[in-house]
Structures are given as C-alpha cells and as structure tokens.
Amino acid sequence: MExxxxxxxxxIGQQSDAEEEEILVSPVEANAAYQxxxxxxxxxxxxxxxxxxxxxxxxxxxxxxxxxNRAALEGDYIRIDIPGPGxxxxxxxxxxxxxxxxxxxxxxxxxxxxxxxxxxxRIPGVIGGNIAHFFTDRATSTFMVFRRxxxxxxxxxxxxxxxxxxxxxxxxxxxxxxVNGGSAIGMSFAQWHLLVSGILKQSRLE
Length: 206
Fold this sequence. Notes:
Layout lengths: L13 E10 L3 H16 L4 H4 L6 E5 L15 E5 L12 E13 L4 E10 L19 E9 L2 E11 L8 H10 L9 H17 L1
Antiparallel strand pairs: 1-7, 2-3, 3-4, 4-5, 5-6, 6-7
Helix pairs in contact: 1-4
C-alpha cells in the first residue's frame, strides 16, 4: 500500500502538500505514537490550539447543524472561522463535509494509516443554498496519519483547489478570490505545517 493511492487525483486548479515525519526507536514505539496522533487528528475542535497559531478556528457539527463535542466521524461537518469577513452563503463561516474517514492496516508491509477526507459543502441542516466555502466542491483536503515500521508521518494534501465564484453574490465572489491566496481548506499553508508538526509533537510527549 502506497499513501499516494489514498489521495484524490489532482485534475484542476492548485494542489498543496504539508507533511512532517518522525523516525522512532522501534515499530512498537511508532505504533503507540500513531494511536495518539490519530486521536489528535480526530479532535477537530482542538486543531487551532495544537497548531500553535490560532489563525483559524474549527468546530465540529452534525448533519442537522448542531455542535458536537466528540471525535470526528464520517458524515460530520466542520465549521471554519478564518480571519477576516466570512461569506453570506456560510453565514459568516466556511463549511466542509467529512465524506470519508477510514483506517487501513497492511500487516505484511507493517503499515497503518488513518485518513480523513473533507470537501467544501453547504451549511448543514439547511435545504438548498450555495457551497459555503472559498473553494468549489471539487476541492478536497486529505488528512492522514501514516506509519510504516518505525516511521510516522502526519500529512495534509489539498487537491483540485479552485476559487468558488460560480452562483455567488459579488461580495462572496470577491472574498473567495482573495482568500484563495491561502492554501488548503480553511488555513494557510504555513499553518497546515504547524498542525501536522503539532500532532507529531503531542503524540511523542504524551
């Protein structure tokens, strides 16, 4: 199993990749750190703290638009509050939908991987409406914790990142084009690196 097989194919727009890797003493130690890293990855409500720069705030919601205080599950939504004005479509926020949450194990290759794939969405619990995000819903962000033997990595891979300007009012269209200067869903490229390095650091210290 190769990690690239799990990431959506790049077809249009921009792509981004943030990855941090740690070589541990043994596969046993790496596996223990892997379990902790997965826990931090799924604790979406704490992402802005673990990244050390609280530039964007993330909150987990269910399909009815109610806030959640638990680990993320497939089918949940993430509300993103980035610096500056939000969109009318998102009532001041950007929204993504967790369309995939899986884990895989390959005992023969001594590999474990957990991945979360998020895609821009409408506001949960609201019928109709436009995509409430500065990227179109062709974009994805794949969050991954990957262990091979004694090597552990935490990664975020953005694919098909296209500004969301179709069927938007003028203010939202302008805002989405401006925010597109940042990379990946809801955070700057630099902060994604801080998030993945923060998850690795926490998994070693605990």
